[in-house]
Amino acid sequence: MADAEATRSRAAALFPALFVLLWSTGFIAAKYGLPYAPPFAFLFYRFALVAALMVVVSLATGARWPGTVKEYRDLALVALCVHGLYLGGVFVSLDSGMAAGTSAMLVGLQPILTVVLAWIWMSEPVVPRQWTGLVLGLAGVYCVVRHKIDFAGNLAGLLPSAVALVAISVGTLYQKRHCAHVDLRSGSAVQFTVCALVFAPLAFLLESRPVQWVPPFLFALGWSVIVLSVGAISLLYWLLRHGAAANVARLFYLVPPVTALEAWLLFGETLDALALIGMALITAGVALARRPVPR
């Protein structure tokens, strides 16, 4: 029994690193898929497939479904923030021509915004060392993506990225406060069903460009469904249940540098010395921003 508990503890210790690795591939999947599908259509098919998959999983494993209207309401609100507005904002920004680094920089502000909101909304304590770490991490994010940042005349992409930033910050806090008791399997089924219903009219009424069902798009869609919407989102909710919101938020600082490394490996994008320094700053900032352990 003790050995099994130790094994579970070691596995859980790896979850933050696994979450960062999986979440960072979101920009890569978008880069592969968006040339072959408009953003709302891409997301509609992603949400619909995940919803169908999670309904089957929930029924097959006997998951407990929400029992009150309030639980369904809370799940729907989180879905619209964490999935709908966040992913919708990022995908629309990238599709409008905004550089991935610009969007990553904006979403990279999420840890600071989440810590501030958790401090105000949930009374989570934030010590000076954490503030120092958050600011240091933000400086590191800038170093990593600074050469891709260009706000000149690109408000069409800037606004959706800003919406995505606020949505993911508010959504993660609302999930921790109001949906921590909901079964992850049935909760995901409800959330992705809500998003599919919302994005269906957006995809079929507002977008005219057809989806090209070519291998790169199918790969990007499959990766988005299995790895991102099932794997990464489940890890995010698990981490929110087992740690402070500030501790989970700091993980998002690691996403831009990991994404930069993936882009270097997959697409040959260059990493200069300042970008490498920025990655070191982010690592130090994440360490400083950890929630103090009670004595």
Residue stretches low in confidence (pLDDT < 50, at least 5 long) are none
N-to-C SSE series? HHHHHHHHHHHH
Helical/strand content category: mainly alpha
Computed over alpha carbons, the radius of gyration is: 19 Å
Helix content: over 70%
Report on the biggest sheet: none
What's the domain count?
1
> Beta fraction of the residues?
under 5%
Number of helices: 12
- Termini separation: 27 Å
Average pLDDT confidence is 82
**What is the number of strand segments?**
0
Anisotropy-based shape: globular
Task: Provide a descriptive summary of the structure in words.
- The chain has 295 residues and is mostly helical.
- It has one domain.
- Helix content is 77%, strand content 0%.
- It is built from twelve helices and no strands.
- Helix 4 (100-107) runs parallel beside helix 7 (155-178).
- It is globular, with a radius of gyration of 19 Å.
- The model has no long low-confidence stretch (mean pLDDT 82).
Please write out the topology.
Layout: H1 2-33, H2 39-61, H3 69-95, H4 100-107, H5 110-121, H6 128-145, H7 155-178, H8 184-206, H9 215-241, H10 245-249, H11 255-267, H12 273-288
Helix pairs in contact: 1-9, 1-11, 2-8, 2-9, 3-7, 3-8, 4-6, 4-7, 5-7, 6-12
